[in-house]
Amino acid sequence: MSGPVFRSAGSNVQTNTGFTIPTSITPGLPAGYALGDLFIAIVWAEIPALVAGQTLTAPAGWTVTSFAYRQFSGNTLQAWYCTKISTASESAPSFTISGTSGDTVYLAGVVLDYENASETLDAISASSTATLTSPAASPSVTTTSADDAVISVFMGTVNGGS
Fold first, then answer.
1. Full DSSP string of 45-112
2. How does pLDDT run across 23-73, given as a tens digit for each residue?
3. Using CA atoms, how far apart are residues 112 and 63, in angstroms rounded to an integer?
4. What domains can be seen in the chain, in order of their start residue?
């Protein structure tokens, strides 16, 4: 079996409600997914304060596998990575954010689809974060298995800091 192959991405959903706290986001499913594909959902939030107290609740069948956050310019960016093996009947997942210590003003999310991937091993087996750089640069990461795929996610502040 060859390694994971990116098939498609669902619609990227963004929620910016001013200073009303958004509590959930429902990114679209990737078109053309097949039974047994690995879905990786990436959900991120921007909070205009230096806090890191939010949690993500994933829908039934999804597993929250990793979490990262970075603070800079008076803001906190948090990201969650969730996995699920696709079934014959799927609907767009709704992820809920809770435990807010500050006012979340921005949520975004996307579902990625990979064929020839497995959730039986740790789908996110290594991760790394980088410091704020301009231009953005990926940190180094060491894969742990043959045929691993590397996914880079770049987050930036929408709010501009305060």
1. EEESSS----EEEPPTT-EEEEEEEEEETTEEEEEEEEEEE--SS-----EEEE--SS---EEEEEEE
2. 788 999 999 999 999 999 999 887 766 555 677 889 999 988 777 766 666
3. 14
4. 5-115 (2.60.120)
